[in-house]
Design a protein that fits this description.
Radius of gyration: 16 Å
Helix content: over 70%
Order of helices and strands: HHH
Largest sheet: none
CATH topology: Chorismate Mutase Domain, subunit A
Number of helices: 3
CATH superfamily: Chorismate mutase
Strand content: under 5%
CATH class: Mainly Alpha
Shape: flat
Number of domains: 1
């Protein structure tokens, strides 16, 4: 049971790291949104989103399947864009 506890503590630490990284990514997406607004570009770039998903699938070394990783990143991209739009409405 001690081994499980230690492994779960490592998972918890990784979850904390993931949250920090996601927050940083959202902050960068907000900055991109500000630049897009100033330059008159659309808030959403389907080409960029496709490129992200393609790149993620290409660099994925497992053990998660590419389809699972792409689903996760679709949500990450959507929520980052949502944060940027919300910030721009302030």
């Amino acid at each position: 049971m001690e081994k499980i506890r230690r492994l779960r503590e490592r998972i918890d630490a990784l979850d904390d790291d993931i949250l920090r990284i996601l927050s940083h990514r959202a902050e960068l997406a907000i900055r991109v949104g500000h630049v897009k607004r100033r330059t008159g570009l659309a808030a959403r770039s389907s080409d960029r989103e496709r490129a992200i998903l393609h790149r993620i699938g290409r660099v994925n070394a497992g053990p998660l399947e590419n389809a699972a990783v792409r689903r996760i990143f679709r949500v990450i991209v959507q929520e980052s864009r949502r944060a940027a739009i919300r910030e721009l409405r302030k």
